[in-house]
Specification:
Length: 373
Amino acid sequence: MTFPPLREELRGIAPYGAPQLDVPYALNTNENPYGPSAACVADIAAAVAEAAAGLNRYPDREHLALREGLATYLSRDVAPGQAPIEAAQVWAANGSNEVMLQLLQAFGGPGRTVVSFAPTYSMYPEYARDTHSRFVAGRRADDFTLDLDAAVTLVEAERPSVVLLPSPNNPTGTALAPEAIGALCEAIGDDGLLVVDEAYGEFRRAGTPSALELLLTYRNLVVTRTMSKAFAGAGLRLGYLAADPAICDAIRVVRLPYHLSAVTQAVALAALAHTDELLGAVDALRAERDACVAWLREQGLHVADSDANFCLFGTFADRHAVWQRLLDEGVLVREVGPEGWLRVSIGTPAEMAAFRAAMMVVLEHPGVAGGES
Ligand SMILES: *Cc1c(COP(=O)(O)O)cnc(C)c1O
């Protein structure tokens, strides 16, 4: 027996995570580059002080006040004329990663199948592994959009209990066509759930609706969101979902006791009171994204269309060499996605200028860029 007595299938596996390096320009984890204002920080500090006075008690395990606040926020994205989202349709946890793990704990598991479509978020197979669910990855089309006919065929063949689909997709930035959501919900039926992961939903381009518009039409639809990206709260660890109240209810069976600390609840509520400020940079970041896509294309590179706050670009014969050359210039991007591609998060104008300057260095050395693969 080797020590420690780790599960067989976990041996030798490297933990998930982007390198956390101390660099001048960190453009690798899709954070919002703009932090909270002094007024927001003061309100958060006051909320934490108030929560601290009651830390001898366990927090509200149903986090009702926070669910109300999140429901109000989500109601901005329902279809015109549709009923607002209610607290009973909302569930929160420590990041949407925990929300999705809870979903698989409740709805996946031994003998059940989870489906997603690659290239996509690399955590999905890990949730499946950790909940002993079978994982099946379909393929996206060459332009990274979802081939709906192939997706429906796969769903009909595999009968998954959970389908995980980000919109916009990470790492490609690709949004899901609205008709795909309805078609998949119908193909999945009452035996499963379609989870549309809208971690980057707030960055979607004008004219791309949120899956929240379809929440009342399909009771097997779950939409997840996070405060980590557009909401400028990656350090907070707060993710949430909107779904049929019966789904929220079921998750309560698998959540750990008091999973959401009083401090987290207080900070998230205080941040929600500053929603407009915290989301204030989203329009500028979208414009910066569109400019970045256009600039990279002008340099002759391939760039995937993006509805997110990052873009996937390439292709490089040796992407690791390009990643390293950018890092040498102080710019950290992410080596992720299909072979030959790299992903850059959208930062401030100064950060993007540094990225472009570093890219010029790369492109002036064809030996490094290596031409197209
Ligand atoms: C960043 C990200 C999340 C959010 O994770 P949190 O745990 O909420 O920080 C979820 N899904 C995708 C696809 C992401 O890229």
